[in-house]
Design brief:
Elements lengths: L7 H16 L4 H21 L4 H41 L3 E7 L4 E3 L3 E11 L6 E11 L15 E10 L8 E12 L3 H17 L4 H12 L7 H9 L10 H17 L4 H19 L3 H19 L2 H18 L7 H24 L5 H22 L4 E3 L2 H8 L2 H15 L4 H27 L4 E3 L3 H20 L5 H28 L13 E3 L8 E5 L2 E5 L5 H11 L4 E6 L4 H4 L2 H4 L3 E6 L5 H12 L3 E4 L5 E4 L2 E7 L15 E5 L6 E3 L5 H7 L9 E3 L10 H7 L3 E4 L11 H8 L4 E4 H4 L2 E6 L2 E6 L3 E4 L3
Parallel strand pairs: 4-6, 11-12, 12-13, 13-14, 18-19, 19-20, 20-21
Antiparallel strand pairs: 1-3, 1-5, 2-3, 3-4, 5-6, 7-8, 9-10, 9-22, 10-11, 15-16, 16-17, 17-18, 22-23, 23-24
């Protein structure tokens, strides 16, 4: 077993050097030179120690490490000049740059209204003034701005014109081009054209099939997610099933396994079986587009297969280490790829821990079930700490969701892949196969939707490196508690410590899930009439009259809004007000689009705003664009729009925020000012004909406020919806406007959730982090 780990230092050091070189390209020459020096020393050491076996082996290992690190640094060094050249030429072009590029990746959704794809730029500028270049870029464009969008695919040559945004250090793409137009110069040819036609044939085959299951078939079969909706994508991520719709190692392993089995059934020997399997894997990579993430997944699948064929986990570890070192040396930018890290972690975890976990689980359940659970458990324990770096939540039901989806996923992949391959020849057969694949795909979609809707499905976790390290320790404790065999005093003690840690975690997780779910309402004042959710730097305010609930804005973070609604126990909204369409007010709109009765909004500007409005209409809501003096009811209370006035002439955005007031029905009088700045607040002043008990301070407490308006409002409570930000919100000047007029301030960044209600003529305020206090008589 010890020898199996001799190549691990090569992989680890190559990863470190590649990461340093890509993030700090200026050090790449020194790293390359240092590696070359070490390699030269290793060669000399190996040559002079021909009779000292251990010393010679050490020299060979050091030489391999130096070779892989040196190649990685040299690759970054060689790319630095061309990258800087592209940036310089693009900046000379002015605000709009023209680029000729060859598409190298799949065309995938980017947000709700755009598409994105990777490409290699070959020229900057157009006509005779074009300059030859060679650099990876990402192009983002609206579908309507693409000429002949149906022919756009990997291998196509395009000309894109748009704004040029330099990427962060460490990213493979030099820049992101937000294109205003993409012109197709030449469609894909050769093998890439054939694979493009096959994928499009599968899309045509699922066209017309109902529900989200149809959108998942191309994703599970060939990694094409064009048809997957935002809601379905969010559900797949929250239930830890999103890996199914990307071309992952499991897809590649399935293809390899089928090819290997077919070769074995044909009577071929072991060597030829491997050859056939690798050829099938190569064909699959071409079919789904040979972009870096796919090549990475194929490489990991090949490693896992070789380990299986060799029959020894130790040899699998050596092969994995070698594969990682080679991949990082050839493509140093993989060092900063989360996908690459997840693939490596999952593959290593399956090689090392799947069998011990299965053996441990078999002590308390049937062996067949233990084997089924061990694979997703091993992957989740290994990948969880990396995923925390992106989203600080832990999917509590991820393993269960994967177990439920596991029987269906390979069926969709195999049948969908068959439909893809026969589509150009027998479209009727392809449609039939797609319909068969739709059945298990619908099961997966239902699993994702159900699991993501369960209370407490996401356990909040500590952000950043500290959170990742803590989850690593927790994962290790769970692994030891399950897999560590009994026997010996030391083992019993270690086992006890691990089980104790798991018990504490289970208690915390269960309690957190309960508080976020069925017990959530019990932790809040039952009589709340207004409640400001803690969603970070953004607005999400609930108003309740009788048994009717309104939500004013959604905040930027879907998970934060979902957590708040779950804790409050609100499932259906009678009214949703979108004050304006900035991300910090509508970023989580998808969470409530399908559970809203009436949605009102202000001026719409552009396709992104229109898409949000459409999502509510498609979800069954009655949608109304409102202006000043529009009104309605919420239970026995009344709402009235005070702004924007139709004659105000304000452009869509902050100053066109829908300002709404709630009165009557036993509510305290409430005024919500959106993100209005001082001038529209002054124009609003004539419409404020009486004081209000509660005011939602405008624009997260910015300094751009009208003192005259706050004096007229004379609120006893000013609520500031605010989170961590770089703007200095809330400003002392804004808070002083509330206090100077006899009010007190509650703010979500320090108080958490803020609940307000009227009780016996007294305005009551409850702060999640402080408890209830009186806010006036």
């Amino acid at each position: 077993m010890g020898r199996a780990w001799t190549l691990a230092p090569a992989a680890a050091l190559t990863w470190v050097v590649a990461g340093l070189a890509t993030v700090h390209p200026a050090v790449a020459p020194a790293l390359a030179a240092g590696s070359a020096t070490v390699m030269a020393g290793a060669i000399v050491m190996t040559w002079r120690s021909r009779r000292a076996v251990r010393l010679r082996r050490a020299g060979v290992l050091i030489g391999l490490v130096a070779l892989s690190t040196g190649v990685a640094a040299a690759n970054v060094w060689s790319a630095t000049g061309p990258r800087e050249h592209v940036i310089d030429l693009a900046e000379r072009e002015g605000p709009l740059v023209s680029m000729t590029a060859t598409v190298t990746g799949k065309i995938e959704p980017w947000g709700s209204e755009h598409l994105a794809f990777d490409a290699v730029a070959s020229a900057v500028g157009d006509g005779e003034g074009a300059h030859a270049v060679a650099a990876v870029i990402q192009i983002v464009v609206a579908p309507d701005d693409i000429e002949n969008v149906s022919a756009l695919d990997a291998g196509a040559v395009v000309e894109a014109r748009g704004s040029f945004q330099v990427s962060e250090a460490g990213e493979r793409a030099v820049a992101q081009v937000h294109a205003t137009v993409v012109e197709l110069l030449r469609p894909a040819g050769g093998v890439l054209r054939i694979s493009s036609d096959l994928r499009r044939g599968l899309l045509a085959a699922v066209d017309g099939l109902p529900s989200d299951g149809a959108s998942l078939v191309p994703g599970l079969a060939v990694g094409d997610t064009l048809l997957v909706t935002e809601q379905m994508d969010a559900a797949m991520k929250e239930s830890s099933l999103s890996h199914l719709t990307a071309v992952s190692g499991s897809n590649c392993a399935l293809v390899v396994g089928l090819a290997f089995a077919a070769a074995a059934a044909s009577g071929l020997g072991r060597t030829w079986r491997i050859v056939v399997a690798m050829l099938a894997l190569g064909g699959f990579v071409v079919l789904v587009t040979p972009e870096p993430s796919v090549v990475r997944a194929a490489g990991m699948a090949a490693v896992a297969m070789l380990a299986l064929l060799l029959g020894r986990t130790s040899q699998g570890v050596a092969v994995l280490s070698a594969a990682l070192a080679v991949a990082l040396a050839a493509d140093p930018w993989l060092s900063g790829s989360l996908g690459f890290g997840l693939s490596a972690a999952a593959t290593g975890s399956l090689l090392l821990f799947a069998r011990p976990l299965a053996q441990g689980l078999a002590r308390i359940m049937p062996q067949s079930l233990a084997l089924v659970l061990a694979v997703p458990l091993a992957a989740q324990l290994a990948c969880g700490p990396l995923l925390i770096l992106i989203t600080p939540t832990v999917a509590l039901y991820g393993v269960a969701a994967n177990v439920l989806a596991a029987p269906a996923a390979p069926v969709v992949t195999v049948v969908g892949l068959a439909a893809c391959l026969v589509a150009p020849i027998l479209p009727v057969v392809a449609s039939g196969l797609a319909a068969l694949a739709w059945v298990p795909a619908t099961w997966i979609a239902a699993t994702a939707s159900t699991v993501s809707a369960l209370p407490g499905d996401q356990l909040p976790w500590i952000e950043g490196l500290g959170g990742a390290l803590l989850l690593t320790a927790v994962s290790a404790a769970i692994g030891l508690a399950v897999a560590l065999p009994a026997g010996g005093t030391a083992r019993r003690r270690l086992h006890g410590i691990a089980r104790g840690a798991v018990a504490v975690l289970a208690g915390v997780a269960g309690g957190t899930a309960a508080l976020a779910g069925v017990l959530g309402p019990a932790t809040l004042p039952a009589s709340w009439q207004m409640l400001a959710c803690d969603v970070g730097q953004g607005d999400a305010v609930l108003v309740r009259a009788d048994d009717r609930v309104a939500l004013i804005d959604t905040g930027p973070d879907p998970e934060a809004l979902r957590t708040c609604l779950d804790r409050v126990g609100v499932d259906r909204l009678d009214l949703v007000v979108l004050s304006h369409f900035d991300h910090d007010h509508v970023g989580a709109a998808a969470v409530v689009a399908e559970r809203t009765g009436v949605m009102i909004h202000g001026p719409v500007d552009g396709p992104d705003d229109t898409a949000i409005v459409t999502s509510f209409r498609d979800g069954g809501a009655r949608v109304l664009e409102v202006a000043a003096d529009d009104a309605g009811t919420l239970g026995s209370a009344r709402w009235r729009v005070l702004w924007p006035r139709e004659d105000a002439g304000v452009a869509p955005g902050n100053d066109a925020s829908v300002v709404v007031a709630f009165t009557g029905g036993g509510l305290p009088s409430i005024l919500l000012l959106g993100d209005l700045s001082e001038e529209p607040q002054r124009q609003l002043l004539p419409g404020v004909d009486s004081p209000f008990e509660v005011v939602k301070v405008a624009h997260h407490g910015s300094a751009d406020q009208s003192a005259a308006l706050y004096e007229a409002v004379s609120a006893r409570l000013g609520v500031v919806t605010v989170g961590e930000n770089d703007y200095g919100h809330p400003r002392a000047e804004a808070l002083a406007l509330v206090v100077s007029n006899g009010g007190v301030v509650a703010r979500t960044d320090t108080d958490g959730i803020v609940a307000i209600w009227r009780e016996a003529g007294v305005l009551r305020v409850w702060r999640d982090h402080a408890g209830a206090v009186g806010a006036g008589g």
